[in-house]
Structure formats: structure tokens, C-alpha cells
Amino acid sequence: MIRLIPRAQPSKAMIFLSPLLALTLTAVTAFFIFAFILTDIKVSSVFYTLFVEPLIDTYYISELLVKAAPLIMIALGLSIGFRAGVWNIGAEGQYVIGGITGGAVGLYFYNVEGFWLIPLMSLAAILGGMFYAGIAAFLKNKYQVNEILVTLMLTYVAVLFLSAMLQGPMRNPSGFNFPESRPFHDGALLPIIWQGTRLNVGLIIAVILSFVTWLGIKKHLSGLQIKITGSAPRAAKFAGFDDKKTIWFALLISGGVAGLAGLFEVIGPAGQITPGLPQFYGFTAIIVAFLSRLHPIAIIFSSLLIALTYLGGENVQIYFNLPSSITNIFQGMLLFYFLACDILIQYKIVFFKAIRQKL
Amino acid sequence: MNEGLIIAIIIGISIASVPLIFAAIGELLVERSGVLNLGVEGMMIVGALAGFVVEFHTGSSFLAVLAALLAGMAIASIFAFLTQILLTNHVATGLALTLFGLGIAAFVGRSYTEENIELISALHIPVLSDLPIIGPLLFSYNPLVYLAFFMVFLVWWFLFKTKQGLILRAIGDNHDAAHAIGHNVVRYRVLAILFGGAMAGIGGAFLSLVQVPIWGEDMTAGRGWIALALVVFSSWQPFKVILGALIFGGITILQLHAQGFDVRISAQYLSMLPYLATIVILVTLRMRVKNKTNRTMPNCLGRIFHSTS
Q1: Is residue B304 part of a domain?
Q2: What is the ipTM of this complex?
Q3: Are B107 and A163 within 8 A, CB to CB?
Q4: pTM surpassing 0.90?
Q5: What single-letter DSSP state applies at residue A195?
Q6: CATH of the domain at B150
Q7: Which terminus of chain B, N or C, has fewer Cβ atoms within 10 Å?
């Protein structure tokens, strides 16, 4: 048996080593799982497609950044809530609702152009996401209903609502009955920042938001409040921090950014509202938030890493006809190993025999 | 409405509620021991696949259910090892388990998406099954349905009528005190988690072996999460799980029948009902007990236990 012995001081080396260790273990385990299941395909070539190919081609690098942007945004919002012990698990639903409300404004002003259009759509998306997450905040504060369950149930509802909208009021009138909205005009699309690719200003906004959040947590009192409410709820109460306000704040912020991310998908890479809007970003962002240990700047890097698994998953789907769920296997496993390896920061692992000898 | 239709609806409700009963009663025991496992959805889908694959290759329903049970336990053991031995955060680990389970099931099951199996057939008990009305209503389900109700009874009996059940509840309420008087907190919790995995696995297999004879990577459709809500709904009391599951089963079946009757609402809005009902029920439940703190909730739910000695 193994035993965990607390360290006197958290290990500084392990703070940096444990993510690398987790990555290595994930890759090794995945290799064996694939080797066991895939008898007809060479595992090394699958690995090459998954992890190397996306990094040596400029098109793939741009796509990597396109996918990282929504992950950064959603994970930022979630990490604020997670710090406060507020578990918004349904960012996927808020993302979808933001895409619908923001997109609806765009469709309403379909033939109008103006510099105000995208800001107005963004506002609608943020409010949509806030409203949707706000339901959970309201129910949590008023009736102590668990926010994990509410946000999750609402995610299923949001996806069904999207499908109802696309078969009803939002369907493209000249779209041969496909469940898709009209494609947006250039004036309603996010400006491209890398010509010839789909990379848009969404990435820049995501990175700016990371730094703003970082400063906010570092300098501002509300950052401190959130941290303390999460790590020591009783102490927070004595200090006079209002935990109801914290719940509202955490859910409204995470819902708002998730909604904005949804709109950026609609007027970014997609260019229209389609049934393919929900892409699991909302769930994956939870992993991103944990991998970055809730640190706003680290979120940028873990988003890039997770975006790589997305892209790699799409590629093996195309080249080897494997399901894209391969991505989920990687992400789940990575989180497992990461959580396990992080124990090494606070604890030393000692084997039972060794303890007996010491005694 | 005629008699036949009503009987069909009631049978449909029972069948729809069984996977929820299995998954929720397992999770109830897990939470009673102080562990919050959010991986129910992942364990269910793995069970659904394991059951389907074994049924497809062997044709033996018994082996299929056994495989689902073992698969659920196997994937739950990852959660047990991480949370109990390596002391990881329950919420994060449970979410990882769900993602991992959905991924691995879709991956392994990719070659089975176009296959069919024969559904597990219903029992036929001589005399009893042939009784009018009562026969079809009570005595002509397949054996798993009876097993589900029996498991609820078993968990109730274990929790409230045995010494081990008392210890398990004590551990869930105060793991430090239970540890101090010499109970092995980790062992109880690991066993509870494995039981939860087994139940979720069978619940998942019920979907692929009894409800529909096909395999689909999205066939659980949130039932694992609804099962988690059911545990809250039940206030951690086993028999209330049945009541909750029947309500959800009822809503599921009624919205299906409403779609069949050409009610003038889009199918999507009707499909939202089970999820919205989950929220509504959680709220009304709390409205009733608003001024009392929830005394039945295990105090140590989701807290990490580390013994220093």
C-alpha cells in the first residue's frame, strides 16, 4: 500500500513538474489503450496525426488558435466561480443561449450595417448568457437548489431550444429547409486578424480578458472576497462578505462570458447559427480551468493544449475514420492524471514498508 | 382512453424509471458514505455498451448484465482510487469520469452502431402473468425491473437495519469521528463507490438491453445527471427514489405519447419537459423544507478525508 505524508511546505518543483508528468502519463496510457483497441491501424501514425501534424502546418496552427479562443473565455468565467466554490457546470448551455440571443439581434438587423451592430449583438449575447446562468444563481440563493444540477439540466434544454429555433423562427427562408439560419453579412462577422485563415479578433479579446481577470483578482477586493468565500466560507462570513452576492457574481460573470463565446462562434468560424453550435466547449472549459489551477494566465496555455486535442480528434476522424470522441478520452484522462499528480505538491508518497522501517 | 392504452402507459412509465432507480440507488449509498460521485452518466454509458457488446457476441442476457455490472465497477474504481487514495477533488474527478466514460464508450462502440440484438424478454409467471389487468401490470416485466425494486429495498435494509449500514452513515456524517473510534473510512467508501458503479452499469445496460435494442453513444441522454438530482429529491431516503423515478418516468412517457398524439407543440419543447421537471421538483422540494436545514444530507458529502495516523 502507498501512503501520503503531508509536506511541511508545498513543493515548488512539483507545481511545474506535475502537469508535465500528467501529460506524459496520459500519452503513455493512451498509446496502450489505442494499441489494444486499434488492431488494424498503426498507433504511431494516429499519434502523429493527433499531436504533431497540427503543429507543423500554418493552417492547423490558425485553427488551433480559433478553437482556443472560446475555451479561454469560458474557462476564465468558470475559474472565477470555482474559486468561490460555485460550480457552474452548464456553461455549454449559456454558450448556446448567447449564440441564439446575439445571433437573433444580428438576424433582426439583417439588412442594416453599422459599427454598432457587433457591439449590440455582443451585448445581447452577454445578457442572454447572464440570464441563463442567473436562473441557477436565483434558485441557489432563494431555495438552496444545487447549481450543478440546474445549470446541467438547462444545458439540455438550451440544445433543444436551439433545435426548435432553427426549425422555426430562425430558419433561413431560402435555405432549402435545412435547420440553419441565414449566413451573416461581412458587417456582422468578426474581423479576421490572420488573412487567409478563420482566425478573428475573438482571440485578442480572450487574451485581453485573461489579463483583466488576472489584475482583477490580484488588485481588487472582490477578487479577495471570492477567493476567501471559496476556501474559507466561515471566515468570509465573519469578515462580512456576502455569499449570496458572490454566487450572483460568479454565475453572472461566467454566464456572460460563455454567452459571448457562443456569439463569437456564430459570427466567427461558423458565420451562421447551425445545429453544430454546441461543440462541448462549455464542458471542456471545466477541464481547462482545472488544468490551469484556476490561474487566468495559465488558462491561455491550457486552452491551447486542449485545443490541440480537439483538432487532433477532428483529424483522426477524417484520416482514420475514428470517432471524434477520442478527444474526450484524452481530456478525461488528462484531468485524471493531473488531479492525481497535483497531490505531489502537498503530499509526499511513501510506500507502506518504508514507514514501518522508519518506525 | 381505453384500458389497453392505460396499461401500456403504466408499463412504459415503469420501464422508463428503472434505469433511474438503479443509478440513483447506487449513488444514494455512495453519498450516504460521504462521497459525491458526479460520474454517474459516464458509468451508465459504459455499462450500456458493455451489456450490448456481450449480448451481441454471446446472446446471453445474464452474461450481458454481469458484464455491465463489472464494467461499471471497473470505471468506478478509477474514481475510488483517485478520490480515496490520492485525495483528489470529488467534483473534478467525477466530471473527468463522465467525460472519460462517454469518450471510451463511443470509441470502443464505434463498430457496433449498426448492429441489432434481441431484447431481454419479459418473464412469464404461470397463473400470475395471465391474470387480467394485474397480470400485465405487475407480473410481466423482465427480471431486471424486479431487481431494481429489490435493490432499493436492499439498500434501505443495509443502511437502516445492519451494523455496517450504521457505520457507513456515521462515516458520511462525520468521517473524523468514525475514524477516531476505529472504523476504516476509506474501505467503506471504496466499497460504496464500487457498488454505485455496479448499479449505474446495470442501469445503463437496461437502456441498451431492454428499452432499445441498439447501441448509440448518446443513449443515456443525461439520465445519469437526472439520477443525481433524484438522490437530492429523495433526501437520501431509499424508498423516495422510487417515487422520484416514477415521476420522471411518467413525464418521459407522457411527452412521448403527446408527440404521438400530434399535440401542436414542437417535439423539442416536449423533450425539454423531463429536464425542466427536474428543476421544478428540486425547487418545490426546497420550498417545503425551506426553514429547516436539510438534516438528512450527509454532513461530509464531498469532503476529502485524510487520516494523519
Answers
A1: no
A2: 0.84
A3: no
A4: no
A5: T
A6: 1.10.3470
A7: C
